[in-house]
Amino acid sequence: MLKKSFFGLTRSWLRYEGLASFPERICHVPSPGRITYLFNAPFEKTTDPKLNVGDRVKRGQPIVLNDEPGGTLVSSVAGSVASITPYDGDLGRRCTMVTITTDGNEEVDTGFADYAASPRLETARTYLTNSPGSPPLDQLADTGRPIDTIVISAMEDDILIGTRRHVLEKDFSMVAKGITVLRQISDVERIVLVVPRESIQGFGHIGVEVMAADVDYPAGHPLLIMNNLLKKPVPAGQSPEENGVCFFSIEAVASMGRAYADGAVPVRKTITFIDKDGAHALATVRVGTPVADLLSTFGVTLNERDRLIFGGPMTGKAIYDIDHPILADTDAVLVQDRDSIPYSSDYPCINCGDCIRVCPVNIPIDMLVRFLEVGQYAEAADQYALESCIECGLCGYVCVAKIPIVQYIRLGKYELAKERSMEAAND
Amino acid sequence: MIDRKKLVVSHAPFWHNGSSVAERHYNILFAAVPAAALGCFRYGIPAIGVVSFSIAFAIIWEWVMNLATRQAPTIGDGSAALTGLLLAMLLPATSPWWLVVVGTFLAIVIGKQIFGGIGSNPVNMVALTIAILSLSWQGHLDFNEALVNYDFGFPMVYPLAQLKHFGTAAIGSFSYMDLLLGRQIGGIGAPFGLALIVGGIYLILRGFIRWEIVISFLAGIFVTAMVFYGANAEKFADPLFHLLTGYTLMGAIFLATDDSSSPVGFIPMLIYGAVGGFMTVLIRNIGIWVDGVVLAILIANIVSPLLDKIRPKVMGEVS
User: Fold this and answer.
1) Residue A309 within a domain
2) Average pLDDT over residues A165-179
3) Three-state secondary-structure class, residue A102
4) Which ipTM did the prediction report?
5) Considering only alpha carbons, which residue of chain B is nearest residue A410?
6) Which of A347, A371, A392 to mutate to test the interface with B (most CBs of B within 10 A)?
7) What pLDDT is stored for residue B317 in this prediction?
8) What percent of chain A has pLDDT over 70?
9) Which domain holds residue B301?
10) Residue B13 domain-assigned?
11) How far is A2 from A159, CA to CA, in rounded Å?
């Protein structure tokens, strides 16, 4: 793929997966004996912690770790807190891991049911931010950055994944309900549903604007949807939210619809599991299930030096711990055999130009990477559009010299942001 | 915790399309082989000697530089072997052994390694070498002089030299078909137009060289020669003659397309090729040199960093 075949004139392009390539049956991963939550807030020892080991929680009850943003998550099981430990995330992010052991009874917290009759943004924020699909309700509620458009995206984050496509085609009644809820809890006028071009038919009745995105990867990337479909290009380094557009995955909208229809917080997430041989299947998993449980359900054994990835092959994140939980926004789990892992090299760029031809946003990568290699991040941003990169991973995929280009770019962005915040602090 | 399996973590993307530097170079090498083989067949043992010696010494110099600069050996990536083969294809079959040794030294050490190795050479190392050799040992690079003892049954004179010294009247004896099929003298591989074109088409189809450069280089030659021919058909040769003689096809397919010394943007590639083609005909028609290809490519190489500044608007860029 993305490589000329021996006789072919055209390059085959990476495409998003259609549902036809998935087995009909959806694997139901049984509820595990323990559930783990990753709080996006640092672990702090205080004299009067809000959450203690041994505390009991009910299904659908908000667990409050602290008052920081990201300090509250809703439990998907009933049980008791077994451990609270610090966890190191990407790029120095400090998180807290909370493990809950289940005890068989499915005691349900009725807090949400009381509010379900009259949807309001505040209660939805408390109860639904870590429902399957992870609805970005905090962004929607942020008064500092008013939102005027909501985009409901049925486009996957990556190739090989079928999670959102499945929700679009098999669970659309809940999506329609979710859209009604969205209208009730926010005063956003414009709601746009973005679907793959192949399945554009049949959404006229729900009363939202429907747009079709290409099935060529990475046309479903939020920044490309902003540029190509909404015609609102996002300035480099900014997010869609800063420009008045909030992106919901279609699964998040379906979860919201289901929550208000059932009067209970939904706890099962649809995910795509991609095996070592590339075979992929859909599964439903309780949010917070350790990935080890998913692997044993599919009968996959991990060997030393295999690779476990949350997300797809282009943009996913490698995981170092098989107890890592499936999160509310984990759309796929990919397992790679140690023999099929391509390694990057320290070879210099030979200037072949393959990356330039695949870059969806026209970054002069051959020049950019020369600056990044020697740590000149400010120059890279000023002259060679470092911050315009959408991190789709295509340049690294085609690189003849196997340079870890995306890694350089992310490091560059991170270092640049650090430099800038230090400068701002000194002023 | 002790029996926990260690997983490999790394950064996305987790897939690679399988291309490699070595694959690229060996394919280009493969595409150059037909013309080189025809040259060896025509000139026999001396040509085989030059080709083997050149490839061998290019690799040896690369290895020596790897040792001297304490780098990991890079001879396996095919770059040195390719340089050696391309250099041999431009040299006459009668080149003495020391010329090949000096030539490969210039190409690998002066042309590439002192700038930092692969990917860092500012100009094409083979073009640079031929330019230095023809300035230093004109007699050995003059094909009429070098190949005086051979007779293959077609005019044993270098077509471009005839044009330079005797004008268009002297080139009437060359038919286009003869020129295309390599019935002309020149370097070991350079005269075999058809073989070079086949190799070039292979490389373009497989995506190993950038077609924009090849096409714009040839178009540059054609258009410029056409202008001269239109202005004075008696003094200047027709465009087709320029396309089929000298180093034109070698330059367009193998030298101008060198990765590191050429630009990669679409517009920059077109300008780069056109500059090379334009300068080639300018040097041939009004310069003092018989063939302008290597010098024209060196000039285009030098312009290349400037051309890299021309780039399309990046999404999200405010300007």
Assistant:
1) yes
2) 93
3) strand
4) 0.90
5) B11
6) A347
7) 78
8) 97
9) 153-305
10) no
11) 13
Structure tokens at B19: 């291309």
**Which two three-digit tokens encode residue A365?**
């990568």
Q: Look at residue A3 and tell me whether its pLDDT is greater than 60.
A: no
Site from A291, A301, A346, A352 to mutate, B interface, most B CB atoms within 10 angstroms: A352
Mutate which of A351, A392, A395, A414 to test chain B, going by most B C-beta atoms within 10 A? A351
Residue from the list A305, A351, A363 with its beta carbon closest to the beta carbon of B8: A305
Q: Please list, in sequence order, all residues whose beta carbon lies within 8 angstroms of the beta carbon of residue A207, skipping any fewer than 6 positions away.
A: A179
Give the pLDDT confidence score for residue A49 in this predicted structure: 82
Whose CA is closest to A154, among A209, A196, A122? A196
Half-sphere exposure of B13 (CA within 13 A, CB side): 23
B209 is written with which tokens? Answer: 């060289």
Contact yes or no for B15 and A397 at CB 8 A: yes
Q: Which residues contact A143 (CB under 8 A, 6 or more apart)?
A: none
Minimum distance, in Å, between the CA of residue B86 and any CA atom of chain A: 18
- Split at pLDDT 50, 70, 90, the class of A54 is confident
CA A175 to chain CA mean position, Å: 18
- Residue ranges making up the domain that contains A273: 268-340
Q: Could you give the number of structural domains in chain A?
A: 2
List the CATH number of the domain containing A322. 3.10.20.90
Residue B218: strand, helix, or coil = helix
Alpha-carbon gap, residue B89 to B84, rounded angstroms? 9
Closest in A336, A344, A361 to B316, CB measured: A361
Q: What's the gap between Cα B31 and its chain centre?
A: 12
CB atoms within 10 A of CB B97: 12
Q: Shortest Cα distance from B272 to chain A (angstroms)?
A: 15
Please give the C-alpha separations between residue B16 and each of A13, A314, A334, A418, in angstroms, as whole numbers: 14, 9, 15, 31
The reported pLDDT for the residue numbered B213 is 97
Q: Is B309 an 8 Å CB contact of chain A?
A: no
Both B165 and B136 in one domain: the answer is no
Which residue on chain B is closest to A3 by alpha carbon? B17
| Domains: count for chain B | 2
Let me know whether A335 and A396 are in one domain. no
Cβ <8 Å between A396 and B16: yes
Q: Report pLDDT for A18.
A: 85
The closest CB to that of B12, out of A4, A315, A320, belongs to: A315
